[in-house]
What does this fold into?
Amino acid sequence: VVAVALAGAALAVAGRGAPAASQQAPGVLEMMTKAKAVFEGACGVCHGLERPLSKTFDRAGWVQTVERMHDNGAEVDAAQRELVVAYLLAKNTFEAKCAACHGLDRPLGASKTPEEWGATVQRMADKRPGLLTSTDAAGIAAYLALTRPARQ
Ligand code: HEC
Ligand code: HEC
It folds into this structure.
């Protein structure tokens, strides 16, 4: 319950005030880091991770699917289920919103620090006002920071 509240609070903070994405709200990155670890630890036990990674659902669809996985036997408590939903939703939002002008290969071919991803996502959001809520932007920036990190 505490982790759910934290995840909600981090996204709520990120959602306050439009220019938040360029500041890459640290609470969101921290929450997504935990979410990715829970997802990778719990969701590849009975089938491959590509099973969820190949699906596109909205929030209600992911909540329902992850609840069903819990019924199937996945070892994720309520807080962890909320984190898995947040992670998969950020991925799907990225896929839905960032292919509007160019292919996803453009962001997927890049490597950046969290700060740089925050700035890039904000710059892209500014190209088409209304495309992304600041919650969307913060989730996408954190997702890309974790899956396309700066090269060492
Ligand atoms: C204990 C075994 C088990 C674990 C762990 C598990 N799953 Fe599943 N998963 C299943 C089974 C069985 C099915 C096929 C039946 C079904 O859809 O309920 C499935 C199917 C799926 C599907 C396809 C459903 C569809 O609508 O096409 C998705 C997506 C999925 N799992 C996501 C996840 C996620 C996300 C997690 C981590 C929270 C997870 N699974 C963990 C057993 C598991
Ligand atoms: C309204 C159109 C539009 C949308 C929507 C859009 N982009 Fe872009 N993107 C562009 C254009 C135009 C360029 C090339 C010029 C530039 O870099 O500003 C570009 C370039 C890029 C680059 C290469 C340049 C760099 O800074 O690394 C990346 C990465 C990128 N986009 C990521 C994204 C992501 C992530 C999203 C979703 C949040 C997104 N784009 C959504 C128009 C868009």
Confidence is low (pLDDT under 50) at residues 15-23.
